[in-house]
Write a structure and sequence with these properties.
Blueprint lengths: L4 H10 L34 H15 L8 H8 L4 E3 L8 H4 L8 H32 L1 H26 L11 E4 L15 E3 H18 L7 H6 L3 H14 L3 H8 L36 E5 L15 H5 L10 E3 L20 E3 L7 E3 L11 E5 H16 L4 H14 L13 H15 L6 H7 L26 H6 L7
């Protein structure tokens, strides 16, 4: 590394997002009005190794914005599903997202689109700068590491947009219109017009970026903090299992997962970072947040400027006081918490608490730190194992023994009273149902429910006052951002 680990870790937490490269001019008045050292022109941004390194870190800063993976993106993935009830009917805090009726001018629709494309543009500008100058400055190996990080972040951003603004891949095998595929950096006005690529074309680019990242990212970093907050080889492989699952390409899920998941328990990663399940699930969601299970997370501290912002962070949406005050969403008593498969002694029940007083409402406390300084999870080892389990069942159409073992690995670490065997399931459909239930229990509050509903073209179930939403109904996916439609003259609606 060009920066020592202590300095790099600090930058991961506090460096501000580089929304664009700043342009400057030079004249004799510069002696009276010197350019601040924190302002770097696009002509010099790639001149020195530390400047290149800082720009890489700034890409992560955009990703962990409270409008994106620092909070709201994850929240949207949960509240569109059936497991949370609205406690604060406020458009600012996503009541329309919960009700499945946001308009193209809604804050959620506009802000997520803008933040994701800002991150994508930052990646594009960075990649062009590396091609023009940066690679020569830092050398081939480090250059490929950095480019791999940028391409992974870009891939994750495009994948995330697809989950809300485009038809699921299963609807026409990716033939429907998707997103504008922007691969060129924009540094000024006049570049808004771009036709939508198909969903399949977007996924092709995502996988191209992740393939490059897998080949060129470091196998490991020095220290658990960097291995949780910086992309490495296993991060790319893990994300590919998620992407292929969304495409229903189950053979590819298996081939990717097999690169790092051994054939038998205890399922410790066979290469790269030694990912493994924690014996106690609660360790994943408390300091230092850098367990071997946490493949990729967004870090936060109590430092000024390093929190997701008011009404953005996960804690603001889920965690309430002992009396139930403060949380925007409670747990739906008819949701997954009511499922009989989730036993009372399961350790994951400790993430649920009942408010005192007359309300008796239940809330999620995976993210209880008031600051908030809880890390926001992007992907963890448990997901890779369940992705593989599901893919094996769907590929073999059988009660697959390895799938049962993978399911047991997740269930047993939290519920020692339940052990599945092949004989526990009469059909492959029964095993699939158990895996899908396990996903809802394991990832409650981690934003994956929407992804699972979309990829399987399932109806979004009703909850509270919000009715169900079928795949062909308006509101099943979000409308395009009103801002995009006003600026992009080549935009065509679905």
């Amino acid at each position: 590394m060009l920066l020592n680990n202590k300095k790099m870790k600090k930058l991961l937490y506090i460096i501000p997002i580089c929304a664009s490269l700043l342009l400057s001019t030079s004249c004799k008045k510069e002696l009276l009005n010197p350019i601040p050292e924190t302002v770097i022109s696009d002509g010099t941004a790639f001149d020195l190794p530390y400047r290149v390194a800082n720009q890489v870190v700034s890409l992560y800063a955009g990703l962990k914005s409270g409008l994106f993976y620092g909070g709201r993106y994850i929240v949207y993935g949960d509240i569109r599903g059936e497991h949370f009830l609205l406690e604060d009917p406020n458009l600012v805090t996503n009541s329309d997202v919960w009700g499945l009726n946001p308009t193209n001018s809604a804050n959620s629709v506009i802000n997520l689109w803008a933040q994701a494309y800002l991150v994508i543009n930052n990646c594009n500008v960075f990649l062009e700068g590396m091609n023009a100058k940066g690679s020569e400055v830092v050398g081939t190996t480090l250059s490929n590491n950095y480019i791999g990080e940028a391409r992974l972040i870009r891939a994750l951003s495009y994948y995330s947009l697809l989950q809300y603004y485009a038809r699921p891949y299963a609807d026409g095998q990716g033939s429907k219109l998707g997103l504008p595929l922007r691969l060129t950096g924009i540094k000024g006005p006049g570049f808004s017009d771009l036709a939508r690529s198909t969903v399949a074309e977007i996924y092709t680019q995502i996988l191209s970026d992740l393939d490059f990242a897998e080949t060129n990212l470091p196998l490991t970093y020095s220290g658990a903090a960097l291995q949780t907050t910086r992309a490495h080889r296993n991060t790319a492989v893990a994300l590919k299992t998620r992407v292929y699952l969304s495409m229903q390409d189950y053979a590819k899920v298996i081939s990717e997962a097999n690169k790092i998941v051994p054939a038998a328990a205890p399922f410790v990663a066979s290469s790269g970072v030694a990912h493994a399940l924690q014996a106690d699930i609660t360790n994943v969601f408390k300091a230092p947040y850098t367990t071997s299970e946490s493949i990729f997370s967004m870090p936060f501290t109590t430092s000024a400027g390093d929190i997701p912002g008011t009404q953005n962070g996960l804690q603001a949406y889920y965690f309430a006081s002992a009396t139930g005050n403060g949380s925007i969403f409670s747990l739906n008593p008819a949701g997954i918490i009511a499922n009989a498969e989730w036993t009372a002694t399961d350790k994951r029940r400790s993430f649920i608490y009942t408010a005192a007083g007359a309300t008796g409402k239940k809330y999620l406390n995976k993210y209880p730190t008031p600051s908030p300084a809880d890390y926001a999870p992007v992907i963890r080892w448990a997901e890779v194992l369940l992705n593989l389990a599901e893919a094996r069942v769907r590929t073999t159409n059988a009660v697959d023994a390895q799938a049962v073992a993978l399911l047991n690995a997740i269930r047993n670490r939290s519920d020692a009273t339940t052990t599945f065997t092949v004989a526990s399931f009469a059909t492959s459909a029964d095993l699939l149902n158990a895996i899908l239930i396990e996903r809802q229990i394991e990832f409650l509050g981690e934003g994956l429910r929407n992804n699972d509903l979309m990829r399987l073209l399932q109806t979004i179930p009703a909850k509270g006052s919000a009715g169900a939403k079928g795949p062909s109904e308006e509101g099943y996916i979000w409308p395009a951002s009103a801002t995009e439609k006003s600026l992009n003259k080549l935009w065509v609606d679905n």
